[in-house]
Please model this.
Amino acid sequence: MKEELLHYVWKTKNFDFSNLITTEGKQISIGKFGHYNLNAGPDFLEGMITIEKTNWYGHIEMHLKSSDWIRHQHETDENYQNVVLHVVYDEDEIIYRQDGSRIPCIELKDRIPFHVLEGYETLHSRTDNISCSAELGETDMDIFYFQLNRMFVERLETKSYPIALELESNKNDWNQTLFISLAKGMGLPVNMHAMESLARSIPVNLIAKHRDQKLQLEALFFGQAGMLKGNWNDAYPQQLQKEYLFLKKKYQLHEMSGVEWKLSRMRPTSFPTLRIAFLAALYHTHPDLHTILLHEERLENIWSLFDVGIDSYWSTHFLWDKVSSKSEKNLGFTAKANLVINAIVPYLFAYGQYMGEDQYVERAMGFVTQLKSESNKIIRQWKKYGVEAKNALDSQALIHLYKEYCLKKRCTECAFGNKILRSISLMIKEDMESTYRALQI
Model:
């Protein structure tokens, strides 16, 4: 059993709360079950209970065992000092507040109907990663697709949270924060953290000073990446190295070690050398990207921002001093889509939330609906069960649903999972009643 089962029966009021008493033996009634809290803090907020004619207003916390309160260190957390009711499956230890008063507690172990417990166990014991796969395609899918909008917003919030933290770290410098976000997007998936480290090492005001000198800007980027430490034969890396040594001394820069970059099992077009070249070219061509993003409302114009030219050296190289077949190097569709989905959209969403400007939140979501669905093994698995992703919003939502709910068996927190659980529980209840009637006959 998981704690989420208690959340489920509490939200749906699917337990016996007649003649309800606390573990102290006091009569209690529930006036307000509270609002389910998906963030840190008590599980249900702003509840109201009545214990022997005295009303209590506050939060409601749930655990399988009451001792989990101590195990989770709630006794030292101020967020839990306004808890007026502790709902547990089993009270194995009496819990007190910081002031020494006992927290009222009710046990649910004898109050949850058997068919609910059995339905929960049936759904959670399935071995398929998507527990409700048997029901997909056989029931009304309106609830499922409605769920996807919620999943996408959750995924955006998850992606935008690090941006908010980054903004705070950068003392509200949106330009530096955007630079880091774009660099991470350029590094996806393998070199994301290395690109993040690179962006952190380069102040955007330094980029602004040298944005008109493309060679110096490239030298700054490659030098800080730790990629100009060798003895090169080609003229281009030699020039970059010379320019970087000047910049390094002038600005007292400290480059990366260079060992952070990964090349194995990667297409050459995704090598970090090319991605760094494109990032430098992007800031050379569009120095004020923050302002552009805030004013640009058309996705096709955002898309065209990434059509920037890199040095001709890269037409015959992927690495220094190693000649390859000549080919034009551009950011492909997948790379651009990743940048929009993983950098631009979360950034606009974070900006809109921070500034209280819904237009940016809506624009971010609108951009994703205009992109075609991603294609990966998760999306293909959903498709196998009859769930089609119409666009990138759907595919992002399905990825989030799969990773954060299906794999973690959080079925009771999913609207569709709730529906399936109710259906399974009802069938078990009907079978039990049918068997009972047969025995009576």
